[in-house]
Amino acid sequence: MANLLTDRAFWVNYWESKKGLAVQLPANYLFHRQLAEIVDEGNVKTAIELGGFPGYYAVFLKKYLKLDVTLLDYFVHPPVVQALLEKNDLKPDDIHVIETDLFNYQPAEQYDLVLSCGLIEHFNDTADIIHRHISFVKPGGTLFITLPNFKAVNGWFQKQFDKDNYDKHNIDSMDPQLLKSICEKAGLKDVTAGYFGRFSVWLENEDQKSAGVRLLKKTIWLAGKVFTKIIPFESKNLSPYIILVAKK
């Protein structure tokens, strides 16, 4: 699978390095406004989160927006999913789980809302992975994709201090115009793509970095937050995320 910038071993190691995955999700979880608006305006009843283990957005959509939700990923560790559900006062069967390789799977059904958050940038062929998302969308349904913007300050920080993680991302995919063009060529409607968030920087497994790197990260984070609070705007150079939304 030359299209893939990661492999199963990467994700097993990635998730095994994470602690405290079972967290209580707040009502104002990241992208909550956008998702609530899509659900309200589109009369959304069903949704699938692709590549989303441990299923934070599947759980969010079930807990707060009362959808019939499915989580699909090619690495799923059931005890973590169950712990996350329990932490959010949900039952074990409140979300459906499909553990499979997206590249060897034909959707058994389609959904009103298909979303992924931090998935498509791990593939070399951006158009191909977006087309695979589209195959899950019902006619009239909505595609919702988010990804980090490593062309911003956060990307520079990742490249300098977490090169291994940076190299697992397709930086060329982080282009709103490219994403919009792919969807329009695929026949989707009402396509919007743009930067989201004023500023942020982060590091994977920050507690394993040196004190100097952690201090620098905190200093850059604080300076960026202050600057964008005084002059609030979203931009290619500062915004930490990109959002793509389209209708089928």
Account of the 3D structure:
The relative contact order is 0.14. The chain has helices at residues 8-16, 32-42, 56-65, 78-87, 126-134, 153-161, 163-166, 176-185, 211-230; strands at 46-50, 68-73, 95-99, 111-117, 137-148, 189-196, 241-247. The protein has nine helices and seven strands. The protein is globular.
Ordered list of secondary-structure elements with their pairings:
Elements: H1 8-16, H2 32-42, E1 46-50, H3 56-65, E2 68-73, H4 78-87, E3 95-99, E4 111-117, H5 126-134, E5 137-148, H6 153-161, H7 163-166, H8 176-185, E6 189-196, H9 211-230, E7 241-247
**Mean of residue pLDDT values:** 93
Alpha-beta classification: alpha/beta
How would you sum up the global shape?
Answer: globular
Task: Compute the CA-based radius of gyration.
Answer: 18 Å
Keyword list:
248 residues, alpha/beta, seven-stranded mixed β-sheet, 9 helices, 37% helix
Brief characterization of the structure:
The chain has 248 residues and is of the alpha/beta class. Helices cover 37% and strands 20% of the residues. It is built from 9 helices and 7 strands; from the N terminus they run ααβαβαββαβαααβαβ.
